[in-house]
Amino acid sequence: MRDDFRGNPLWDYRHHKAARMHFKTDNGERLDDIRRRALTVLRSYCEGATLGTEEIAGPLWALVDVTHGSQSVKGACDWFRVAAAYGEDEELRRALLAEAYGKIERALRCYL
């Protein structure tokens, strides 16, 4: 099932239009390294890095891909995406991002 999405520009995060240069992967890169890098990018975004929502799409796609489309990880990534799009109150937005990041970490525990 996972190989069906490889190379498909609609689903493969490496070919997705939102995948930016700071999150490209090599063909031989270990999945654990991809997961670590994706979490590092998301953690820096939670801490106030000036990335747009387009730049976090690549790491979110990568996390779903390395977990073989896990529903719990996908739901946690969707939660993060919604928290990142919240724009009314910056303090509340940061709290939502921290909670969403925690959801992603908890969802990834079985894939460590």
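(the above was protein one; protein two follows)
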Amino acid sequence: MAYDWVREHVARWDDNKQRIIGRAGAGVFDSRYAQSAVGATLPGEWWRVENDGTVVGYGWLDAVWGDAEILLAADPEYRGKGVGTFALDHLAAEAASRGLNYIYNIVRPTHPHAAKVTAWLVSRGFSATEDGRLMRLAGARSAPPAEDGPGTIGWHDLTVADAEGVRDFYCAVAGWKAEPLSMGDYDDYVMKTAAGHTVGGICHARGPNAYLPSTWMLYIRVEDVDAAVAAAEKMGGEILARPGEQRPYAIVRDPAGAAFALWPAG
């Protein structure tokens, strides 16, 4: 699918931004965006991602002390279709052309899928810093590995009531290290090897994760989540949670009783 990268020379809040950013769900973006009046001028530099003239995403960049903070947003209908990676690579090129050193993103602690967004960025060359930012050299391209497409495992995590206790169990048994990921008034954990490679997450059964089964959940990338859900039902699977505006993935139980997630590829 071919996308166009369109600069907004004077960025203003409009119906398309309200549709894609303002309705993204509580905790995903700064709440000030959703409260903006139509026509209000926006800070920073903005670009639209268009598909045959239809706005399907946005990229935002703000230069800060020689680096660039970035924001990505994709229309829910286009998640898993490469909009995020397209915008990310163009933002990196924009930052490099301005002589900036790094691009960075801050995954808000209130984001309902913070661990999964963090894993997506890490898979595209970002590294976590001590102050909570995820950074990458501006001149680098994402170049997701070949195994990053439909049919592959995109993430795995474990959701439990006692995340700290289970965290300590796996640190002792597997030799993993735990990196706290703030969720506001509590932490979930990104688990890493001793060498620093991300292996999965351990999350509290709270907020957006309250309904998840206590099992190691595989997130299988698929081209079309709705089509995969329909196929699962046809083949005797049980749909535990369907995708929605605040949750781009589905939770399914297979005929043998194992639960897993269907996650949009790209």
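Reviewer note on protein two: The first helix runs from residue 15 to 22.
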